Each structure stands twice: as C-alpha cells, then as structure tokens.
Amino acid sequence: MELLKRPQCQDPGNRPAAVTRRVQEMLDDVETRGAAAVRDYAQQLDGWAGDFLLSPPDWSELAEQIPDQLKADIHFAHEQIAGFARAQRDSLSSFEIETFPGVTLGQKVIPVQCAGCYVPGGRYAHVASALMTVTTAKVAGVPHITVCSPPRGKHIDPAVAYALSVAGADTVFQLGGVQAIAAMAFGLLDGPSADIIVGPGNAYVAEAKRLLFGRVGTDVIAGPTESAIIADDSADPRTIAIDLLSQAEHGPHSAVWLFTDSRPLAQAVLDIMPQLLASLPQPDVPAQAWRDFGVIALGSNREEVAEISDRYACEHLQVIARDLVWWKERLINYGSLFLGEGSTVTHGDKCSGPNHVLPTGGAARYSGGLNVQKFLKIVTSQQISEQANETMSSVGSRLSRYEGMEGHARACDWRLNKYFPQQRWDFEVHDQWPPRPEV
User: Fold this and answer.
1) CA 350 – CA 171 distance, rounded (Å)
2) Of these residues, 155, 253, 316, 356, which one is catalytic?
3) Is 207 among the residues known to form the active site?
4) What is the CATH number of domain 17-219?
5) 362-408 pLDDT, tens per residue?
6) Which CATH architecture has domain 224-368?
7) What's the whole-model pTM score?
8) What angle do CA 70, 350, 118 make, to 5 degrees?
9) 347 among known catalytic residues
C-alpha cells in the first residue's frame, strides 16, 4: 500500500483523559443531587432556565413553523426508515423446538421497556437523527421512548420536534449534553429510567454513554464520522471528491479516505480538492478534516484495495467501481455499504432507510450499527421432562463433576435418583442425602 496523501493527525476518536474525568464528575454529581444538578448544568453550559419538558402546545406551535415541503420530506424519510426497520423486526421470531425427546427449548423476543434517544442540536439541526433513533425503537415495540435534545433558542429545533412527533416519541426533554444522558439513565425529570440509550453526540456525550454502559445498554460508542470510497479507473474523480468533502463537513475530526488501484484517479482527486473546497460557502471545517485526517491509499490491485478497506473498517463505505457484485461479496468490515455512483452517503444519513447510527474507530470489525435488535432482548426457555432427565441429567452430572463443580453435579444426581429409583448407573451418582426435615 502506498499513501499518496497522509493524514497530519492520528486517531480522531481518541478521548483525552480530561474528558473522561470531567464526564465522570458530572455523572457522579447528577446521581448524587438528581434533577437539581441537571438544571444547574443546563444553566451553566447551555444558558437554559426554561421548562425541560416539551409540552403538547409547544409541539403544536413548533409544527406550525414547518413548511409543507419539509413536512413531506420528513414523512418520506420516516416511511423509508420504518419500512427497513420492520423488515429487520420481521427477520426475528419467537419459537419453540423439541431438540431431544422431552426437551422443549424456546426463544422469545421482548422489547426493552424504555429507550432513551439523544438527538444532537449543536452546529446542525439533526432531523434525521430524530427519525433514525425513535422510529427504530418504535418499530421494535418499545413501550416508552424518551428523547433529549438541546434547545436552540426558545425551544428545540422545530423540524426536530416535528420529526419526533412523526416518529412516535413519548416524552421529549429540551436538554443536551452529559446531563441529558445522565437524566435518561437515572430516570430524572419525571421520566422512567432508560434501559438503553442511543443516538450520536459530541465527545462528552459519547463518553457519558461509555461510562454508563452496563448500568444501561448503548448502541455504539461513536467517535467522529468516517467515510471511505473505493474506486477504480472507471470512477468520476469529481464525484469522489464531492462525496468525500460532503462527509468532511461533519466536523474537523471527520476522517475521509479514498482507496484505489488507479494512480491517475488518485492524483485527479487530489488536484480537484482545493478547487472544490474554495467553492464551499463554509470551507473551514471540511478543509481542516481533509488536511488533518484525509487519506488517499493506493493498492496494486482490487484484492489489495479490499484488504486496505477491511483493515480501516470504516463507518460509511462507498464503492464506485466495476463489478459491484464482487465488491459486495468480498468486503466484510464496514458500518454501511453504498454501492455504485448513485448511492451517496447523504442518502443513508438522511432518508434511504438503513440506520445512520454506525460504528466508528474500527468497531465495524465486530459490530453493526443501530437496528431494531438493539431494542430487543432475545431470551430463552427450556422445559425438560422426567424421562428426558435420564439423558440430560446423566450428561450434566458427568460434565459438572469433571469440571469440579460438585454442587452442579448433585442437582442432576438428585433427579436421576428421584425419577429413576430402581436404576443403577455406570458412573458416579451421589445418593447419600440428609433426611427430609419434619414439617
């Protein structure tokens, strides 16, 4: 692999120790002082002293501010996201099977009881994040969905509020940052405590989710956005450059990468970048992301390019190349895959259907993104008849005793003696028990 453009900085997802310390201090404070601490942080960090709860009249007032076309676009995106989520939900089922005579095993799919969804509200109005998180939880069957989103002015963003209404949020708090994550996790502000907290956010929000994991579930521990494009000499270099810069817009730490086996294509993209950056109305953020974290990697052939891509295991992966079927079958590490020039990451970010909350920092090697399964528990059951104990308890007893777990073995031995009192066993079965206590 040859790097035609190297990043000037490394590891955009690295969390400074100071962030971890500060977030832990805030979480401890909120857990100790409760809603009072939440209100203090909202005042200090966001200048917010109003009501946290978004009331039905507030929702109605904000909805009136939304143009009809934007409403239609929100409904369209919601339909695509919900349709894909329903297909995911339908791929899971409860069942019972008899794996051995007298042994009935089962699986039951149960939604969590409360999901906490975080919708950012800093530089951008994250309408799509409102739809992606709440819609998916709703389709999964979660009975109560709590949302926190920081206020922008007198309320949260009107389009975000409208999207939350369309998606089916139950309770919306105008609250952001670490204090919002803590409030959902601890069940403050008159809301139930969340079983799982999902949604993107800044480094402090991500760290709060990481530190709370175990007490609550989480979707992914997300870092800055990553996007990669695989391209061969059939690709349009201008399309590649435009798509890379579109993702660099997320923030100054957003990594964008090009993997190719065509040196002329790589050079053309490199040459086009300054021109395209200069044409943007706000070029500073994407320019910094491209300078500090942009990569152009050249492989000798498509197999090496695929190996490079799988090594990076990026969040978003576009393929603009010949033989898309080959790439689809060969690639294994990515959060979401976009095949062909017609599929830009913007589609996935906003409206095409698959979720845009995706793994970063190489986590795509072992995890996918947010989906209905994140809101579901797959629990199991077993019912074993007396007759089936002749086999099950025999095997259980022998394995337990081999492992040195005598108590486990005796639980099986008891059943062997109780259900088969006349039988003699060709392995050790404990049969010396204290007499039953008198009642």
Assistant:
1) 23
2) 316
3) no
4) 3.40.50.1980
5) 989 998 999 999 999 999 999 999 999 999 999 999 999 999 999 99
6) 3-Layer(aba) Sandwich (3.40)
7) 0.89
8) 95
9) no
